[in-house]
Amino acid sequence: MASSVGIFSFVVALSIRKSAVNPANDICPVKFCGPRGPEIRFPFRASGFHPKRCGYPSFDLACNAHGQAILQLHSSQDFVVDRINYEKQYVVLKDPGNCLARRLQNTTFSSSVFVAQEYGSFTFANCSVDLSAFGIERVGCLSRGHHTVHVAPAGSFTWLLSYSLCHTWTVSVPVVPPPQYPTNITASVVLRWDVPDCRSCEKSGGRCGLKGSAGFAVGCFGKHGKQHANHVGLSKRAKLGILLGVMLPLLLCTSGFAFYLSSRGRVSGHRVENIVANVTSPSNPSRETPRTSNVVTGIESVKMESYPKIQVDDDGQVPRPDDNICAICLSEYRPKETHRTKCGHYFHAQCIDEWLEQDASCPMCRDPMGYK
Q1: What is the pTM for the complete model shown?
Q2: What is the pLDDT of residues 201-218, one digit of tens each?
Q3: Strand, helix or coil for residue 163
């Protein structure tokens, strides 16, 4: 019985755990293209790994042979996704060929999904001398032979560039206002997305996902197992889990105690049945002989009073700790109750007196108590 309750508890707990988790999380696990790559999850999806319902349109990423996550913007321009900030909703992009400066010359980064938070103007200079000693950044992948390409924010070092026989041009580059992200346009650019808006869900510790099997409505499936990003408190499933967590152990203890009592009752009942059977219809001839040789219907009350009496102490201690139940009335001995004995077996004084008035033998060992 206890094992059945244990199995039932395990099944219920497992079902609660399953129901408390957004089903979408079971089919949309987090994906990593490589050990140093960002985690890919909604609204992004890894092509060939996640089902389409795991991501939002135009947020597909592909894993290349180098373990990099690749985002394709408009005009088939591929960029390496170096970092994804899901709470602030921006991505940090790098050039697969490690020469982002070349792509800044003629690439338009804004699209229908990803846009720049802010644009900054930067001046490139192709000079006949190296100006790195003056603190101007050198663009190594654009520099060739005796010509060195430098870059600086527009307006910086204008006087120096004009005296260095440099050819200059200015480009507009996506940047993030400091101090959110350092500005290093030759290393990476930062783009943000506004739709779908999962910022409040992410801040609350939840995870965004598409609702249902159709459409692009977005829901927040949090750690509380409830579709409510801003909801504070325990969900109904969590409360049910706590309630069952308390009730199931109580049920198990109650069932175990009931099983113990029923087993004890069966043992005591079997014991009494044996006593009654021996008294009413003895089948052993060897035990029948003393009865026939000492035929006595009962014992006189005067003689019964001569049998020793013992009173149970205040702590309920009995002379025989392993025998704390009167075999006649099947009740446990209680403090200050009076017991009577003659043959080494103890009974309630009142119980054994009534017994001996009808039968002069011990109900336990069948010893003829009236003749000792």
Answers
A1: 0.53
A2: 999 999 999 998 889 999
A3: coil
